Amino acid sequence: MTITITAFERSPDGGRGLARDMRVRWALEEVGRPYEVRLVSFKQMKEPDHLALHPFGQIPTYEEGDLALFETGAIVFHIARHNRGLLPEDDNARARAITWMFAALNTVEPPIVEREQSRYVVGDKPWYGELLPVLEDRVRVRLDQLASRLGDAQWLDGAFSAADLIMVLVLRRLEGSGLLEEYPNLSSYVARGEARPAYKRAFASQLAVANHDRGAEDAERQ
Ligand SMILES: N[C@@H](CCC(=O)N[C@@H](CS)C(=O)NCC(=O)O)C(=O)O
User: Fold this and answer.
1) How many A from CA of 92 to the centre of ligand 1?
2) Which structural domains are found in the chain, ordered by start?
């Protein structure tokens, strides 16, 4: 059955792999499932056809036959359940990997996104200079804890799993902040994720969309 995901027609990150379709692309690449991508504009994302797939008008979505899903945690979990390679076979190890998926999304991602969004939401306020260090310290609390749990391990709990896939991409959202660099073991962990062939294929496919877009803009200017 064909798998179709949605992604930004014009990703605000210009193809740096920070948009959340990257999670789904990487998961599909890890398990060797081909997929199609439907690109949507910001306008289309808020229109009824897309809202029927995603109640919050966001990307990515995932369609496979009669099934339509939204929320990257649920999508990656679905892919991992139905294909080998992203979750351990052993019941307890699987439960622990799922726990880490939730931890990445519910415990580590929120302060990272809060810090990132603050610039867009209140970046022009006179008190922003005082707020930012507070938000950064909230991120550091989680990074301290994560770094101390990860220690010298390669992955969060034994072999690479869907939890690492999500955690690596959550941590990548800190790019440019300098925060990740304060934690050498977390930086190496992210680099290990980025070195995986499936990651590289997923990254290249989302970058190709941005490059195509840039090519079209250049052609328009000429
Ligand atoms: N919790 C959702 C977040 C989805 C999300 O924030 N998507 C962003 C792109 S990375 C989006 O569509 N932003 C545009 C908007 O919210 O209007 C998930 O993990 O799928």
Assistant:
1) 31
2) 3-85+198-221 (3.40.30.10), 91-196 (1.20.1050.10)
